[in-house]
Amino acid sequence: MDATERRLRAVSAHLQPQATAARRTSDSLAPNPTAGEYAHVLGYSAVLPEKLQTGKWNVYRSAHSPITLIDRFSDYPDIGTLHDNFVNAVETFRDCRYLGTRVHADGTIGDYKWMTYGEAGTSRTAIGSGLICHGIPKGARVGLYFINRPEWTIVDNACSAYSYVSVPLYDTLGPDAVQFIVNHASVEAIFCVPQTLSTLLSFITQMPCVRLIVVVGGIDENMPSSPAAAGMEIITYSMLHRQVGFLNNH
């Protein structure tokens, strides 16, 4: 028996017969004979036979493909990346709601204001093109220094489309951690909000890799002057969005 067949038999031993809809519930949790105290959902996953000499770990793989990793879905063979997935969504659901924000008026919570997939796709292209026009090269790291909001998703999608690497920066970790992450990852552009801009500017001279700061929700007239010694530029998200034409995705 060769290694492949032994592996197949080991993995097959973890698999249950085709689960019915009735069994695909919380009641389908059961002890895994090779994973000790761990439990798994029957019919959904298989535990691979790999083990470490020390410590506990388990490798789970889909029950539908326990031997090999899946890099394409049979229903969508052309989708292989996050960029492909978003492009397909824009083409398929162009006029459907995608990103929603509760509008706050006079301190009260208003109705959702929605952006469609098509609108998000247009914004994604504008932001990616803007980064290129500001000299941010392909493969550069782009920091996202603000909490969840539609612009966060749009910038992340722009990174996928234009071959940038998005780097989340968490305000809860404190200024020292943000400074360390930016320098360690050589982040060249940072998207932030007015509240986190002041934190960035307090140690911007200690992050020489940063070339561009984009302020989400900022007002053009209220943007501070860029520190002369830092050699970087500060603009608003809206300005980046509108100041350039569209370029082809890279």
UniProtKB/TrEMBL annotation:
MF annotations from Gene Ontology: long-chain fatty acid-CoA ligase activity
Chain ranges of the AMP-dependent synthetase/ligase domain: 109-217
Pfam families documented for this protein: AMP-binding
One Gene Ontology CC term in the entry: membrane
Annotated segments matching region Disordered: 1-31
Superkingdom per UniProt: Eukaryota
Protein name as it appears in the record: AMP-dependent synthetase/ligase domain-containing protein
Originating species: Triticum turgidum subsp. durum
